[in-house]
Amino acid sequence: MTAKALFEKTYRIRAYEVDFRDQAQPLTLLNFLQDAAGEHSLRLGVSVAELRPRGLTWVLSRYHLHVDRYPGRGEEVLLRTWPALREHKGTVRDFEIFDAAEKTLLKASSSWVVIDLATKRPVRLDDHLPPYPLLPRRALATEFPMPKALGEAEQEFPFRVRMTDLDLNRHVNNAVYAAWALEAVPETIQRTHVPSELRIAYRAEAFYGDRVLSRLRSVEKGPPAFIHQLLREADGRELTRLESRWTPCPPGLATTHRGVV
User: Fold this and answer.
1) In angstroms, rounded to a whole number, what is the distance separating the alpha carbons of residues 49 and 213?
2) Residue 112 to residues 21, 49, 83, 109, Cα–Cα distance (Å)
3) Residue 45 confidence (pLDDT)
4) DSSP line for 104-148
5) Residue 207 and which of 64, 169, 256, 258 are 20 to 30 A apart at CA?
C-alpha cells in the first residue's frame, strides 16, 4: 500500500501527562508531535531506524508552535501531520491537533535536515532519501526566523543530562530542551498563564552528564514573553535559542501560591 502524505493518529491525555491544572503539559504535546512524525516517517521509508545503518539521521532544526488550548486529562485528541516542503538539504513537516469538537488546539511547523553521523554535516535529501508524497499546505505560515540572542540573563536554572533525557541519536531529546527552557519562567507567570507560542532553534547537541544552564530574560512590553537560551556550562556553547509568549489561563485554572484561586 502506498504511503499517504497525511498521517493521522489519536491520543488520549493520561494522568502522568498533565500538570497541576490537570491539563496536558507542553512537553506532552511536543512528545505527541515527535511520536507522530516518527511513525509517519517509518511508513514513508525514511525513519531514523532506516537511516542510522547508512550513517545518517534526522535532526530537528526549527520549531514554531501556536497553542490555542491545552487538552485536559482523559480528553481524546486527533493529530494530523504531513511533509509540506522538501528542498535540497531540508524538509518542512507541519502539524495540527484537534479536539473532539474538531476545534483546533495546536498548529505547528518544523524544519528538519538529514546529517551524516560521521561529519555532522547536512546532506542532500535527493542523494540519500527516496521520494515521498508532500501535502503543499502549511499549518503556520512561518519562515523560521532565528530567535533573538539572549544577552544578559535575569534568571538561570541548572540541569544535568540524565539517561532518560536521551533519544535514539544519544543526545538530549528535542522536547526536553523546551521543557528546560520553560522551567526558568517565574512561578508567578506559570501559575496564572500558559505558553501559547514557542519559537525554537536547535543549535548544538548535549550529551549524558553535561550540565546545561537554562537562561532567560523577559520582553518588557505587552503580555508575558521571554527570550530563552540553553547553554552547556563546561564550554559556554549555545545549545538552543527560544522565544515564548504566554496568555492568561482560562477562568478557574490559574493558581496562586499553593492554593487554587
Assistant:
1) 31
2) 33, 16, 10, 10
3) 95
4) EEEEEEEEEEEEETTT--B--HHHHS---------SS----PPPP
5) 64
By C-alpha distance, which of 68, 121, 85, 111 is closest to 200? Answer: 111
Contact (Cβ atoms closer than 8 angstroms) between residue 174 and residue 30: yes
* Mean pLDDT for the chain overall: 93
Q: Left if phi > 0, otherwise alpha if psi is -120 to 50, otherwise beta: which for 181?
A: alpha
CA distances from 145 to 141, 201, 257 (A): 12, 9, 36
C-alpha cell at 93: 513537516
Choose among 13, 35, 33, 9: nearest CA to 24.
13
For residues 54-63, average pLDDT: 95
pLDDT, tens digit, 9 for 90 and up, residues 76-114: 999 999 999 999 889 999 999 999 999 999 999 999 999
CB atoms near residue 75 (< 10 Å): 17
Rg (CA), the chain: 18
pTM exceeds 0.90? yes
